Amino acid sequence: MTTICQAEVRAIFVAKTVRTFCYGFLGIALPVYLSELGLTAAGLGVAVTLTLAGSALLTWLVRRPAERYGGRPALIALGALSALAAVILLSSRDPRLVVLAAMLGNVAVGTGETGPFLALEQVRIARAVAAGQRTAALSIYNLLGYAAAALGAATVGALAGYRPLFVVFLAGAVVQCMAYARLPPEAPVERRRPVGARLPSASLIRRLAALGALDAFAGGFVLQSLVVYFLHERYALGLEALGGVFFATQVLTAASLLLAVRAAARFGLLATMVVSHLVSNVVLILIAWAPTAAVAIALLCLRHLLSQMDVPTRQAYVMALVEDHEREAAATTTNIARTVAQAVTPALTGWVMQAVALAAPFVAGGALKIVYDLLLYWTFKDVKLKLDA
């Protein structure tokens, strides 16, 4: 990496860290906060769906500006929207405005992050490092995110009330904007694209996006916000206990990212994605029959040790699957597909929790994710990557 590239990656790492630190406590606090404001399980499901729909819309809206002007202005604008979201949370207890704030702030409702920040940042990292360093750089990027989210989760029980958390969210948005302002200018995609070039990898992107949509739809059954609600309702865990649980899960997730680099180097990106994810989904199904909170938490921790190993490998896989001038399109298309599909499920999940069984989403989500794993391997096992892209 050159000195300029190192500075660019550091700025993105700082932004990722402060953002996911805030997501760590907001992902736990907001579901409980909305419940205290009168939302039922079904209402919470709709709120999560709207939050994800807002994230998908923002991801779609930033693609063209990012291609035309570079990612820096778009990232600064997104950081400003997060600051506006924090102001709304500080100024109103209306559940509708709380949900609007979550939408504007692109608040993560799961253990992993989707949406416009992720789409733009992974492209900047892919361009800033050599192809051989890409999986490692993206692993560090995600590791910082999960570690920061773990600390954020632990903060829930340490601060008294919701208002201090919203103040920290506002400060984090300001730091993000400052970090993005330090990014070097980037040439528009039109100037990087060879004359007359189209998207030769478009069919591959569409297939990967379609499979990603299936995975995200299944993941929508077990988003962190809904798992928080499940543990709160079934085992009567309070905020402090929930903060400890999700601190542990985020730490384990962060640790698993270190394993992902070594596994990908030995077995390949695709095999690492599929095998680790497949085993974790079997564990996910078992949570539905956990007799006690201790057993449920132990299975949840085991699942988090495996389930996110596919995140940096998948991001590196997408970046290696396409040419450089296709990366904005690939990143936004796959992220939008995932976010839109994931947005459909929570409203259904809330109803399933009330009408069928509180634990039913774990079975539905795990089974569909296993189908995704098998289809992903079958579809891409013979596809060659552009390793020098």
Write the layout of secondary structure elements.
Layout: H1 3-36, H2 41-69, H3 71-91, H4 95-104, H5 116-128, H6 134-158, H7 163-181, H8 189-192, H9 202-219, H10 224-235, H11 239-267, H12 269-286, H13 293-307, H14 310-321, H15 327-355, H16 360-380
Q: If you had to describe this structure to a student in words, what would you say it looks like?
A:
α2 runs parallel beside α5, α2 runs antiparallel to α15 and α12 packs antiparallel against α13. The chain is globular. The protein has 16 helices and no strands. The chain is mainly α and 389 residues long. The chain has one domain: MFS general substrate transporter like domains (Growth Hormone, Chain: A).
Please indicate the percent range of residues in DSSP E strands (runs of 2 or more).
under 5%
Give the CATH topology.
Answer: Growth Hormone, Chain: A
Shape: globular
Count of discrete alpha- or pi-helical segments spanning 4 or more residues: 16
Radius of gyration, taken over Cα atoms and rounded to an integer in Å: 20 Å
Structure class:
mainly alpha
What's the count of strands? 0
Major β-sheet profile:
none
By CATH reckoning, the class would read Mainly Alpha
- In CATH, what is the homologous superfamily? MFS general substrate transporter like domains
- Domains, number: 1
Helix content, binned percent: over 70%
CATH architecture: Up-down Bundle
Average pLDDT level:
85
H/E element sequence: HHHHHHHHHHHHHHHH
Low confidence ranges: none
N- and C-termini, Cα separation: 15 Å
